[in-house]
Amino acid sequence: MRKVIRIFFKTLGVLALLIILLGISLFFAIQLPSFQTWLGQKAGTYLSDELNNTVTVRSVDLEFFTKANLEGVYISDKNNDTLFQGDLLVDIRKLDYKNQKIEFKKITLRNSTAKIVTYKGDSTFNYQFLVDYFDSGVADTTPKKEWEVKLGDIYLDSVNLTYRDERKDIRISRNMNFNNLHFAKTSGKFSNIRFEKDTIFIRLNDLRTIEQSGFTLRNLTADAKISSKEVLLKNLIITTPKTYIKGDVNFYTNEWGDYSDFVNKVKIKADLLEDTKVATEDIATFTSELNGLKETIYLSGKVRGYVNDLRLKEFKLKYNEHTRFNGNLTITGLPD
Predict the structure, then answer these.
(1) Which of these, 49, 86, 156, 319, could form a disulfide with 323 (CB 3.0-4.6 Å)?
(2) How many helices (H) and strands (E) does the chain have?
(3) Contact call for residues 90 and 69 (beta carbons, < 8 A)
(4) What tens digit of pLDDT does each residue of 200-221 get?
(5) What's the angle, vertex CA 289, arms to CA 236 and CA 182, rounded to 5?
């Protein structure tokens, strides 16, 4: 009997040692980028099967609780076009699983492409299958604490962004088509981000991009409040090759689609500081009525109303060599 007990405990000790060695081996293996990449690729295969879409990850580099870098991520939509492709780099400042809190220090999208598309004959965006996958449609009435998520800075580094509604006119011209937007080589920093219902509050820093219409933005810096009803830009600086705007500029609309009729449907409230200059070619990007005009207007003061019905207060304007204006003015009928 003693011999059996001795063998039993001896065997138990060997098994315990083996489990410890396996645990140690697994711990060190998880630290290896090659093992992390293998796990990422397995996760991509699993998600591809679950979503019935292509999901791949080229490489993974994790430092637990502090960093997660996913390179070469690719997710297709149901039409086998790109939904997202690129590198996602995440730095975590704090992770508290017990209290369900996570605070991100920095999130970077690098060398990436993202496309939001509504295809002809469809009524939803191309990412709807992801919404459906994570939402069973059955309301969960179980009381539970939601994760508290705090975003840090978000960086865009050479990102291409596409929005396209193929149910509408998507022709490309020198005027920006709000049914078919494509921004290339986009970079910039977003900070102080918070959400309230459908409104985003954000600090934009040195945002740069090129839209397919030819519009080139060299710098957009502002404290922004963005919703479907208003875009408020305080402490604004906008720089293009021919335009420089400084001040506070607010746009008011009934819906996003109003921007496609900028002249008649977008209400403006702007306080422009000295040294502001606007190239008519840049304004024409948003409204075809100004196509062909190639002038630079120097201005400062208060602007209120719509492009076709503007009220100017304490206004200074310089246009061409011989046109000057200082004072208050109401202008109707633009751009005719």
Answers:
(1) 319
(2) 5, 17
(3) yes
(4) 999 999 999 999 999 999 999 9
(5) 60
